[in-house]
Amino acid sequence: MNDFAQIRQRFPILKQTENGQPLVYLDSGATSQKPQEVIDAITRYYTLENANVHRGVYGLSERATEAYEGAREKVRRFMNAVSTKEVVFVRGTTEAINLVAATWGRANMNPGDEVIITEMEHHSNIVPWQLLRDELGIRLTVLRINQKGEICLNALESLLSERTKLLSITHMSNALGTINPVKEMTALAHKVGAKVLIDGAQAVPHMKVDVQDIGCDFYAFSAHKMYGPTGIGVLYGKESLLEAMPPYQGGGDMIYSVTFERTEYNVLPYKFEAGTPHIAGGIGLGAAVDFMESIGQDKIAEYENQLLQYATEKLKAIDGLRIIGEAENKGGVISFIVEGAHPHDMATLMDQDGIAVRASHHCAMPVMQHFDVPATVRASFGVYNNFDDIDCLVAAVVEARDMLL
Ligand SMILES: Cc1ncc(COP(=O)(O)O)c(CN[C@@H]2CONC2=O)c1O
Questions:
Q1: Measuring CA to CA, which residue among 335, 318, 332 is closest to residue 405?
Q2: CB of 98 closer than 6 angstroms to any ligand 1 atom
């Protein structure tokens, strides 16, 4: 049994059947499945370590705090951040981006200042900037994509100006699979003095991310996409920026002292972590980091690329199927349509064969508009998928197509 076949055995949920067929889970882009060690870490916390963190002066609370803050250090090392002060726990990528818009955005942007995003963004990296535009009168500029679903660095350079205060971009598209050249994009933005936020929700599960190497100012991701629990994610921010930003929410734990006249805020990262945190989620995230590092992100990326190449070759051979998003550099996501068959009908029929794929606009409606499709069928891979899964996917696509046409 090869390594990845053994890894698959660590996911209990994959042992079940769906409609009498083995479950073929190909929707990791929406949320990944969880290995036993992540499930066990969360169970262990509630079984043996549950207490509120940071303020208890008794052993149980100290052990809960050690487990929770130990997870923060794991994330720091995982992203190669300089300090745990730069690792803010949030609910997920969406909250991370909203936090930056609400704090750094409000404190640093004035009417006429510009945010640049790309045409392939998820709605969580579009709507927060629209809200800020409508509140502050800033400009929101879109970097268009080509017919392969790629951005053009020269076009970005032409858009950047002294007016640009933030470049906010996805590292990897959830709808197209496109991997953006974020390091080069960051360098171009910094040349005009703009800050850079990277939406890493789809990238972190699939590849090694080194925030110091990229040079970005903010980086956001969600635990539930990289084998961890829902409800916990990370905002990385350069310490100097986080230090200068006002708090996001007010309450307990984010304070040092409170009088009715004024409040002195807590140090980083706690200034941004008001209220009782998702302690079990943080510990589960730490276990997910351990899981990914036990395999090796480069090994994950290489394996998933083999799956992607195989799936692309097999799907392209199906009459009437069009792949949406054919970037030279892609991660483990493949979107497609079958002419004459609505994606929702395709996915519904494929479910009858035990195939779990997403049929949607994937919260990337501008991408659908660009390719003039209402939605796509999307298969997205995790470390537990294999080539048999892809053979099952292809057979189900053909069967659904023949039933619908
Ligand atoms: C690129 C990208 N950015 C942000 C988000 C938002 O993440 P949270 O929901 O964890 O805050 C997602 C979610 N991906 C969606 C969710 O379902 N299917 C998808 O592709 C995403 O793919």
A1: 318
A2: no
